[in-house]
């Protein structure tokens, strides 16, 4: 067992590779959590590529373990603890090895009792329901562990009988949430797997008509369901279409509530442009220009040209070529927002586009609409894929063209421009022998919308990294999982996508966790740790609109360490997720 040698609220880089995980001498008390971050590339002596990694010591807070036991054992345990605290300390009492052994023994005992907590209500009479709920949630020891606002939050758990879902349900109850569980069949076996105070909803994620009643009254969703077979139809129904159906059902419910208040849901996207007819192209202007003029080279340039048209196939296509050195072509329009709407109420843009996989520059012009001479230009580079895709661009990604200008204020945005320039274009995947001319482009526009802003996550999705899946079915599983993730990202809901390593049936909070982005993790993780992350992400603003991988801490090879250790003293709620996710990239 490790104990903390130092405490710091922030991550501190080091310039010495010997301070890495494998060479660090550190300690960590049971109530502490440990955070690690990557070493900057410039400070590493070896040539291996480094990436941002965050490691968190996932040891359960002693108060949480205590609250998960029965009341009688709690009183006895507290009495013994008080007696021990009155005794003088010696070297054996602070021996890290001894402390680690004792903490594991205490945790194993508490876990055995906690695993049967969900069955307590099954042995009681029906007329004891109110008294039991008051004992377990409001009047019992769990009242100290309740999260502020949890009693006003209803969470729908999809896949509540899965390995992760069963633990998620109980963790939510311990914290005072109102819990609804979506199951396909409410037979006796399923009912006995869930605590009695959980409201059971019968429905199929593949059937949208059965989800309308399930989302009524729900504020948030945790999606733990997964297909039980590798049949393509099952994978599509559960992992892809199921996520899409639930996000739509929740959005429809939010819009219905907003209509009752004579307004529009704050979780709905704002439509800026939809290209469905020839008339929708009105107001868009095609322009061309050059960054510099080369009089000699211009004699040999083939020029540039571009057009924006609505084809017979029903597509709005912006296409052309740029052979002029330093030249560019662009498509621009002055925005016209609905009355009472401004972009400062939104956090970014989403574009549904298709084409031949070129990259573009998205430019926003901001300033007083009455005097455009005072406007400032802000740009962000976007990449597309061959075929159709959705591109999310947060307003925080836009940078001023002139470095001295102030950051972008979405409230002042009045013009949008999509620019193509031959420089910085990269070849895309194509059949062998196919020629690619990076100076030509084709962009099919479907719609442009503004993404609603928010502080918290609305939808938590448990996906997977592909580790632990049979190689013969891994590609099929990942294809369905990634399609479900994409449908969630473009829904407009605040999302958190968790990709755990291979799941293990063992107590959580025993080992450090690695949070990463980049599909590089190699270890498994307990179902209990994944469930704890799901619950903590509900009210953590740093978890909104982020996708990340998570697994157990591993020991890196000598000379290839990716992170160092920094001690972290958590707050009362033992919140390790905020510092872990704060350094990870958003809108992923």
Automatic annotation (TrEMBL):
<protein>
    <recommendedName>
        <fullName>High chlorophyll fluorescence phenotype 173 protein</fullName>
    </recommendedName>
</protein>
<feature type="region of interest" description="Disordered">
    <location>
        <begin position="64"/>
        <end position="87"/>
    </location>
</feature>
<feature type="compositionally biased region" description="Low complexity">
    <location>
        <begin position="1"/>
        <end position="20"/>
    </location>
</feature>
<feature type="domain" description="NAD(P)-binding">
    <location>
        <begin position="159"/>
        <end position="253"/>
    </location>
</feature>
<feature type="domain" description="NADH:ubiquinone oxidoreductase intermediate-associated protein 30">
    <location>
        <begin position="306"/>
        <end position="401"/>
    </location>
</feature>
<dbReference type="InterPro" id="IPR036291">
    <property type="entry name" value="NAD(P)-bd_dom_sf"/>
</dbReference>
<feature type="region of interest" description="Disordered">
    <location>
        <begin position="1"/>
        <end position="24"/>
    </location>
</feature>
<dbReference type="InterPro" id="IPR008979">
    <property type="entry name" value="Galactose-bd-like_sf"/>
</dbReference>
<dbReference type="Pfam" id="PF08547">
    <property type="entry name" value="CIA30"/>
</dbReference>
<feature type="domain" description="NAD(P)-binding">
    <location>
        <begin position="458"/>
        <end position="540"/>
    </location>
</feature>
<dbReference type="Pfam" id="PF13460">
    <property type="entry name" value="NAD_binding_10"/>
</dbReference>
<dbReference type="InterPro" id="IPR013857">
    <property type="entry name" value="NADH-UbQ_OxRdtase-assoc_prot30"/>
</dbReference>
<dbReference type="InterPro" id="IPR016040">
    <property type="entry name" value="NAD(P)-bd_dom"/>
</dbReference>
<feature type="compositionally biased region" description="Basic and acidic residues">
    <location>
        <begin position="64"/>
        <end position="82"/>
    </location>
</feature>
């Amino acid at each position: 067992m490790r104990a903390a040698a130092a405490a710091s609220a922030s991550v501190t880089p080091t310039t010495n590779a010997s301070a890495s995980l494998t060479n660090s001498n550190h300690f960590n008390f049971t109530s502490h959590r440990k955070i690690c971050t990557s070493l900057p590339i410039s400070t590493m002596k070896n040539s291996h590529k480094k990436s941002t990694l965050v490691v968190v010591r996932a040891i359960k807070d002693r108060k949480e373990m205590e609250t998960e036991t029965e009341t009688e054992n709690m009183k006895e345990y507290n009495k013994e603890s008080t007696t021990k605290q009155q005794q003088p300390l010696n070297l054996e009492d602070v021996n890290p090895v001894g402390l680690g052994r004792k903490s594991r023994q205490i945790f194993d005992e508490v876990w055995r009792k906690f695993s049967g907590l969900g069955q307590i209500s099954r042995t009681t009479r029906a007329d004891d329901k109110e008294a039991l709920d008051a004992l377990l949630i409001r009047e019992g020891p769990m009242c100290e562990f309740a999260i502020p606002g949890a009693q006003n939050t209803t969470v729908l758990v999809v896949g509540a009988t899965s390995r992760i879902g069963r633990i998620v349900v109980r963790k939510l109850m311990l914290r005072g949430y109102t819990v609804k569980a979506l199951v396909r069949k409410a037979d006796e076996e399923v009912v006995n797997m869930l605590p009695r105070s959980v409201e059971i909803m019968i429905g199929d994620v593949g059937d949208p008509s059965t989800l309308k009643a399930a989302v009524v009254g729900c504020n948030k969703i945790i999606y733990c369901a997964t297909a039980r077979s590798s049949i393509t139809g099952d994978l599509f129904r559960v992992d892809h279409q199921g996520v899409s159906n639930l996000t739509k059902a929740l959005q429809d419910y939010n819009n219905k509530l907003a209509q009752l208040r004579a307004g529009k849901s704050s979780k709905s996207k704002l439509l800026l442009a939809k290209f469905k007819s020839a008339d929708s192209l009105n107001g868009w202007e095609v322009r061309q220009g050059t960054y510099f003029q080369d009089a000699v080279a211009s004699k040999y340039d083939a020029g540039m040209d571009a057009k924006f048209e609505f084809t017979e196939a029903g597509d709005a296509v912006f296409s052309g070529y740029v052979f002029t050195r330093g030249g560019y072509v662009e498509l621009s329009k002055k925005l016209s927002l609905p009355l009472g709407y401004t972009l400062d109420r939104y956090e970014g843009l989403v574009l549904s586009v298709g084409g031949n996989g070129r990259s573009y520059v998205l430019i926003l012009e901001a300033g007083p609409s009455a005097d455009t001479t005072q406007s400032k230009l802000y740009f962000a580079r976007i990449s597309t894929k061959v075929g159709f895709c959705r591109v999310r661009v947060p307003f925080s990604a836009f940078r001023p063209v002139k470095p001295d200008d102030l950051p972008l204020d979405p409230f002042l945005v009045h013009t949008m421009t999509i620019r193509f320039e031959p420089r910085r274009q990269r070849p895309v995947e194509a059949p062998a022998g196919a020629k690619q001319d990076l100076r030509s482009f084709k962009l099919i526009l479907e719609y442009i919308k503004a993404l609603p802003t928010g502080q918290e996550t609305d939808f938590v999705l448990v996906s997977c990294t592909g580790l632990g899946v049979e190689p013969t079915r891994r590609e099929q599983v990942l294809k369905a999982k990634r399609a479900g993730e994409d449908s969630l990202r473009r829904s407009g809901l605040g999302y958190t996508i968790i990709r755990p390593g291979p799941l293990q049936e063992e107590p959580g909070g025993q080992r450090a966790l690695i949070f990463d982005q980049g599909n590089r993790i190699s270890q498994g993780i307990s179902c209990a740790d994944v469930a704890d992350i799901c619950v903590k992400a509900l009210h953590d603003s740093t978890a909104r609109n982020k996708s990340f991988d998570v697994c157990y801490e591993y020991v890196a090879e000598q000379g290839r360490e990716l992170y160092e250790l920094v001690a972290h003293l958590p707050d009362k709620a033992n919140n390790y997720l905020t510092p872990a996710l704060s350094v990870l990239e958003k809108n992923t």
